[in-house]
What does this fold into?
Amino acid sequence: MHTLSEQLAVLRRRRGFSQADLAKLCGISERQVSRYENGGADVMSTGTFSALLYYLAETPDEKDALIGALAELRNIPW
It folds into this structure.
C-alpha cells in the first residue's frame, strides 16, 4: 500500500494537474500541496481531504486507496 503522500502525487499527475492547478481547485496554497505530497499529510483538515478526494479520485478503487491511506496515517481501523 502506498502512503497518502504518494497517493496524492500519483493521482495528481494522473489527472494532469500541476501542484498550482490542484491548489487552486481545492482552495489551498501550492506550498500546502507540496507539503502534503512530501510527507506532511498528517495535518490535513477534513475539508481539504474531501476536496482532494473529489478532484483526484475518479474510481471507487482510487477513493478507497486514499481513504485507506488516510486511515493508516491516523491509525484508524479501516
